[in-house]
Amino acid sequence: MALDQETLSQLLDTVGRFVRDRLVPLEHQVAEDDAIPPHIVAEMRDLGLFGLSIPEEYGGLGLTMAEEVQVAFELGQTSPAFRSLIGTNNGIGSQGLVIDGTEEQKRHYLPKLAAGEMISAFALTEPEAGSDAGSLRTSARRDGDHYVLNGTKRFITNAPHAGLFTVFARTDPASRDAKGVTAFLVEAGTPGVTVGPADRKMGQKGSHTADVVFQDARVSAANIIGGREGQGFRTAMKVLDRGRLHIGAVCVGVAERLIRDSLAYALDRQQFGQPIAEFQLVQAMLADSRTEAYAARCMVLETARQRDAGRDVGTEAACTKLFCSEMVGRVADRAVQIHGGAGYMAEYGVERFYRDVRLFRIYEGTSQIQQLVIARSMIRDAKGGR
Ligand code: COS
């Protein structure tokens, strides 16, 4: 249910203040320690940040997509690692359950996810199946009223913290494509499920990914999302359509932060006897970044509104993710350039954002996959398809 304007403004103010006062001062420390302090995680729980997108009847805030993206604009104003911790419970970790789960599955898990008592993770990617997600090899063999899972999932965000995995596995051994894939809810601690050591990444320190390995892990048939075999790939795609829009919004937030920092630096930094903001070549970089971030913000809001109105926005979400993630890459590059030598130095934090935002063009579908999704839908429409 949509919030009234005053309640939404209060929520956005509260999140904005939390980001400015509590998270921004910790950015360096989180990157150095590669960890978010536990008291900050507790504050995130108290603010309800783990349950933004989970319906109210299951203990979440039940935000509409248009509301959620505005919260993401605020959360984007600091290191993406903070958003990443709550990102899976609000996005790819919970939405399979929210969109396609049975009532019983929702009642069992969603309240814990909304409260942040349990972290969820989305286990789709494998060593041999990334962009070609439909070719995954993790198998789920039926054995009575259970399935036996075998295989390896790779680069799984929040895996080291997760209590619940949405696992995509092949239940039809004769299939090679998306049709034979089923989504399972698998609790961490299930015998045969192990999480590997945290990966060493280029950026987003404080957010953790790891392999998840299944060796004869027995999972009840009652844990198939929605209760039907063969629906898993479609569930994954629906989750990603939504996730791509959310990532677009985070990109806008980060871009706006970098533009603000770049402008402040350009107004302060003196060269040739005046602030560098007075130079037209610096102004051009600021103006280009501002223009692109504004276009991205408009795309996110419009696509979110269309989704709330019940339209299929798969193509628009891909357009949004493609534009926003490429946009924030250009904005981060210009931010380094405007900061000059300081932009290359760790203490100013700009180079950290430059590394952090690189991931946005890769996960939840690379830019090339978004292009493919967009072009395929254009061709299908031209031929009179769905
Ligand atoms: N919503 C609902 N259903 C969808 C869908 C969507 N957005 N996209 C595809 N489907 C359905 C199709 O309708 C099709 O169902 P039918 O067989 O009943 O017709 C099925 O899913 C398979 O679709 P398709 O044939 O298009 O699958 P492909 O194997 O060709 O793959 C891409 C499509 C490449 C778009 C997909 O694999 C993809 O998005 N890859 C990137 C994965 C990704 O984002 N990985 C990041 C990991 S998560 S951090």
Automatic annotation (TrEMBL):
Q: Which cofactor does it need?
A: FAD
Q: What is this protein called?
A: Acyl-CoA dehydrogenase
Q: Which InterPro entries match?
A: Acyl-CoA_DH_CS (IPR006089), Acyl-CoA_Oxase/DH_mid-dom (IPR006091), Acyl-CoA_Oxase/DH_mid-dom_sf (IPR046373), AcylCo_DH-like_C (IPR036250), AcylCo_DH/oxidase_C (IPR009075), AcylCoA_DH/ox_N (IPR013786), AcylCoA_DH/ox_N_sf (IPR037069), AcylCoA_DH/oxidase_NM_dom_sf (IPR009100)
The pathway that the record names for this protein is: Amino-acid degradation; L-valine degradation
| Entry keyword Oxidoreductase | yes
Family to which the UniProt record says this protein belongs: Belongs to the acyl-CoA dehydrogenase family.
**Swiss-Prot/TrEMBL keywords:** Branched-chain amino acid catabolism, FAD, Flavoprotein, Oxidoreductase
Tell me the ranges covered by the Acyl-CoA dehydrogenase/oxidase C-terminal domain, including all copies. 230-378
Output the Gene3D superfamilies linked to this UniProt entry.
Answer: Acyl-CoA dehydrogenase/oxidase, N-terminal domain, Butyryl-CoA Dehydrogenase, subunit A, domain 2, Butyryl-CoA Dehydrogenase, subunit A, domain 3
- The residues covered by the Acyl-CoA oxidase/dehydrogenase middle domain are 121-216
**Where is the secretion signal located?**
none
GO MF annotations for this entry?
acyl-CoA dehydrogenase activity; flavin adenine dinucleotide binding
- GO biological process: any one? branched-chain amino acid catabolic process
Provide the Acyl-CoA dehydrogenase/oxidase N-terminal domain boundaries: 6-117
**What organism is the protein native to?**
Nitrospirillum viridazoti CBAmc
